[in-house]
Amino acid sequence: MARPTMAQDIERQVKELILERRLGPGDALPTEAELMDMFGVGRVSVREALKALQAVNVVEIRRGYGMFVGSLSLSPFVEALAFRAAVRHRRGEPGLAELMKVREALEAGLVGAVTAGMPEEDLAVLHGLVAKMEVEARTGRVARSTDRAFHLALYSSLDNHLLSEVLDAFWAAMDRVREDLDDGHQGPGVTCAQHREIVAAVAAADGERAVRAMRTHFDGIRTRLER
């Protein structure tokens, strides 16, 4: 295993400092000079480490104000995952299909928990999105943005921000290669019916029915990818 560079070691120490001080997004960090004194290192290594941490949203540098803990967003992971799937798909490899299998396992595994007690206001949002799909279907195509909003809203009652970001990674990957897919393979009427059935199962608090509906929905996506 390659030995970590000085900058990589500083990255590790900055992360440990954030954990030890129980800092969160937006909290102030020591200045560049303070980090140099604290770790006994030079300015070049500190700047290299901070640049790397900024790239993955661990550190935010505000010119004229100082350094702060970053948003800790998973957007760099999302971009890497989407690009990896797109590259493999374009090379004829099953990168996107593999990604969709993981997404199916995730959604089918969670949709049962959603049926345990979805608030009425969240259920109303889902009904509204299905109604919007039905209007869009009359034009010949359900908008991807509406479909995406449905799947994100479906799990909002779980109040899991990590889940939302991971699901977004799957959508980003699909968007990268959507021109390679035959969007007309599954009719918009079928898409609406599948989402309507998911909502009906959730409204009835029927976990098994919801899982079956989600599996059926992914059967259609799988068929498109196989083509």
Ranges with pLDDT <50 over ≥5 residues?
none
CATH level 1 class label of the largest domain = Mainly Alpha
First and last CA, distance: 42 Å
Coarse structural class: mainly alpha
Biggest sheet character: 2 strands, antiparallel
Q: SSE string, helix = H, strand = E? A: HHHEEHHHHHHH
Query: Averaged pLDDT, please?
Result: 88
User: Looking at CATH, which topology of the largest domain would you report?
Assistant: Four Helix Bundle (Hemerythrin (Met), subunit A)
Radius of gyration: 22 Å
Organism: Streptomyces yanii
Pfam families: FCD (PF07729), GntR (PF00392)
Protein name: FadR/GntR family transcriptional regulator
InterPro entries: GntR_C, TF_FadR/GntR_C, Tscrpt_reg_HTH_GntR, WH-like_DNA-bd_sf, WH_DNA-bd_sf
Salient structural properties:
227 residues, mainly alpha, Arc Repressor Mutant, subunit A, Four Helix Bundle (Hemerythrin (Met), subunit A), 2 domains, elongated, FadR/GntR family transcriptional regulator
Chain-wise SSE layout:
Layout: H1 6-20, H2 32-39, H3 43-55, E1 59-62, E2 66-69, H4 75-90, H5 95-114, H6 120-137, H7 144-154, H8 161-177, H9 188-203, H10 207-226
Overview of the molecule:
There is one protein chain. The chain is mainly α and 227 residues long. It has two domains: 6-69, Arc Repressor Mutant, subunit A (Orthogonal Bundle), CATH 1.10.10; 96-226, Four Helix Bundle (Hemerythrin (Met), subunit A) (Up-down Bundle). The chain has ten helices and two strands, in the order H-H-H-E-E-H-H-H-H-H-H-H. The longest helix is centred in the middle third of the chain and has 20 residues, at 95-114. It is elongated, with a radius of gyration of 22 Å. The two termini are 42 Å apart. This is FadR/GntR family transcriptional regulator. Pfam families: FCD (PF07729), GntR (PF00392). Keywords: DNA-binding, Transcription, Transcription regulation.
